[in-house]
Recover the amino acids of this structure.
């Protein structure tokens, strides 16, 4: 399978070579449910992050297929895969090294706005959206990530964001507008409603848009969207709180927003609220999100406030939930046709 890709395939390394690259796994960068990441260096001097995967079973065909597909991506806002290792149950991915780590360590810090600043946060938000648009619409193989969150956004030396960790990604043909899948995948707090329950509509690229919106609101709030310990119960779920306080000055002041950067903060908030609409049909595509960033704040409308319980209990809204299945598919198909007619992006590295 690998030989068929020729020079397009990422380089395959022996496990012994991977151990040399990581100096026998001396410097750990992080770990998660899918593996442990160590810092390493290739023979040509390039620094890399090597992710050793846990609990690997089977003959590896699915792993190789995923590696080859992601290995063919090339975009400034998607982390580069330099190589991989597959020896029985031993599997590892070799990525470019990101010296500034992941986004979460900045936005969940004590003074996130002082470290990054609103202008840089805004640029990071746009960069992530561009990376997602590439994965959704400009790849040879469409990729739905399914785990967009601050921990999976890496920052290079210039704080350029790069989407990483494709362990949960779903690959599909570019003509497919909806995905067939079993089970739930993603991280609690970022999972789109339709991924958790098909009652809300079909799973599609808009499932990533929901996760992106939740992340965008965390960037604005400088906190996790769901907080267990708060002064008031109304502050527990940040998206509801910021929606209710958006028109009030104290709402954005609580997020360390000054008059100089108010437009940036308000625009990020509005776009985030549109992205987390419960029903996929009301969410923008990621292409539309980029268009919204280019508009002035006055040109953006406030989205409706949707409630999970109200949508399911109200007969009228229940019909909307059911119709969302067919309408989401239709809109996604139209979006595919639109993007395919557009000239190639200049962002592709």
């Amino acid at each position: 399978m690998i030989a068929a890709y020729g020079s397009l395939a990422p380089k395959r390394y022996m496990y012994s070579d991977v151990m040399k690259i990581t100096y026998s796994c001396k410097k750990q960068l992080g770990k998660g449910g899918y593996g442990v990441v160590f810092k390493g260096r290739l023979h040509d001097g390039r620094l890399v992050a090597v992710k050793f995967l846990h609990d690997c079973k089977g003959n590896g065909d699915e792993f190789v297929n995923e590696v080859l597909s992601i290995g063919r991506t090339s975009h400034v806002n998607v982390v580069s895969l330099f190589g991989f290792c597959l020896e029985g149950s031993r599997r590892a991915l070799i990525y470019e090294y990101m010296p500034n780590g992941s986004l979460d360590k900045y936005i969940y810090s004590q003074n996130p706005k002082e470290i990054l600043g609103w202008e840089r946060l805004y640029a990071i938000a746009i960069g992530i959206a561009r990376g997602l648009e590439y994965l959704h619409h400009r790849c040879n193989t469409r990729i739905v990530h399914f785990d967009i969150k601050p921990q999976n956004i890496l920052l290079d030396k210039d704080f350029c964001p790069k989407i990483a960790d494709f362990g949960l990604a779903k690959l599909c043909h570019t003509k497919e507008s909806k995905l067939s899948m079993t089970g739930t995948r993603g991280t609690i707090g970022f999972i789109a409603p339709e991924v958790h329950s098909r009652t809300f509509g079909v799973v599609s690229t808009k499932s990533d848009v929901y996760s992106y919106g939740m992340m965008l609101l965390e960037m604005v709030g400088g906190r996790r969207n769901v907080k267990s310990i708060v002064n008031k119960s109304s502050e527990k779920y940040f998206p509801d709180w910021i929606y209710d306080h958006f028109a009030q000055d104290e709402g954005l002041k609580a997020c360390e927003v000054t008059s100089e950067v108010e437009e940036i903060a308000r625009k990020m908030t509005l776009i985030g609220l549109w992205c987390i609409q419960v029903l996929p049909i009301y969410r923008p595509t990621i292409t539309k999100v980029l268009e919204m960033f280019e508009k002035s704040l006055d040109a953006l409308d406030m989205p409706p406030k949707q409630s999970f319980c109200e949508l399911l209990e109200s007969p009228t809204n229940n019909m909307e939930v059911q119709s969302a299945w067919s309408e989401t598919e239709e809109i996604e198909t139209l979006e595919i046709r639109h993007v395919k007619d557009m000239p190639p992006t200049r962002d592709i590295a």
